[in-house]
Amino acid sequence: MALARLLVPPTARRGEAVEVRLLIQHPMETGFRREADGRAVPMNVVNTLVCRYAEREVLRAELGSGVSANPYFAFWIRAESTGDVTVEWVDDAGERGSVKAVLTVP
Amino acid sequence: MSRLFLLLALLPSWLLAGEPARPSPTLPGTHFLGDDLRALQADDFANPGMLWVARGEEYWMQPPASGAKACAGCHGPAAESMKGAASRYPRHDPVLGRVVNLDGRIDACNRRHQAGEGFAPNSPMALALGAFVAHQSRGSPMAVSIEGPARATFERGRALFGTRIGQLNLACRHCHDANWGKTLLAEPISQGQPTGWPAYRLDWQSLGSLQRRLRACFSGVRAEPPAYGSDDLVALELFLAWRARGLPVEAPAVRR
Q: Which of B46, B54, B205 sits opposite A69 (nearest CB)?
C-alpha cells in the first residue's frame, strides 16, 4: 500500500511559479543489504517518477539506489490554467503509486 | 577535616541527596542535531515521520474489520482527547495491573474495545498509531506520575540507568549524565531525553519506537537487549520520562 503526501498551493496566479513538494513512503532497497541469515535483500527502488500538470508532463525522473528511503522531492512548475497535478511512480517490484492535487488558477 | 570536606565535595551530588541529579539544563535530543536535521524535523511536510502520523490518522478514523468502533468512535477528535497523553506515559494501568507505555496502552485498547489482536511492537501499524497519538501531545511538558503503584517500576528503571552492563561495562548514566555534550566518535552525546519518540531515525531509514532505540543502546555497549515490552524497558522508559519532566513532547522527531 503506497502512501505519499503531495503539497501544491491550492491557488496561484497565471504565470506564477509554484513549488510542488512530494514525500513518498518507500524502503528504496539498494540491493546491497543482507538479512541476518545472509540472504541478499533484492533491489527495490522507485525507478520512474512522472508529474503531470493539466494533462501535460512537466517532470520525469529516473531514480536509482542512491536515493534515500522515503524520498522527498521538491520542484517548481509554472501555473497556467486550473488543472490536476498528478504524480505517478513505479518501483522495481512493479508496484505503482499515484497522488493528486488540484491547482486552481482563477 | 578539610580533606574530608573535599572528598564530600567530589562525590556526585545524587549520592548525597538520594535523588539522582538530572542533567542541567535539560536539553531535548533536537538540541544535539545539526541545523539541517533540525530544519527537517520542524518542517511538518518534509519530516518523514509525518508519513506514519498520516497513516495513524487513517486508522484512527476507520472502524476496524471486526465491526467494532473506530478509535474516533469513542475518543472523538484526537487533537482534543489525546492532547497531552504522551506526556503522561508510561503510567500504571489498573486493568492490566502494571505500568505500560503509550504503545502498550494503545495495544490494550485495541484488544479490549476493538476485539483486535493488538499490535506487534515496532510493526507498521503500532508505529503509525503511536506516532499519531504522540503527535497530538506536541508541546505538552512531560509529567509522568511515579507515585503509588508506579513507584516500584520507577525504582527499577532508576537502578537500571545506573547499572553497568555489557562488555563495555557502561551504565546509561556514564554517557547521558556524566558526558553529554561531548563527542563519541563522530556524534555528540545527547542527554538521552525521550521526548522525540517515536522518531524517524536516519540510521534506520524508518520511524522507530523508543524501545527500539533503547535496545540499540544495549547493543552499543554490547549487552543483550531486553525483549520488546519487557518490564526492564518499560521501567527505563518511565525513569527517562520522569527525568525529562518539563521538557515538551516533540514527536515525531528526526534523529541520526
A: B205
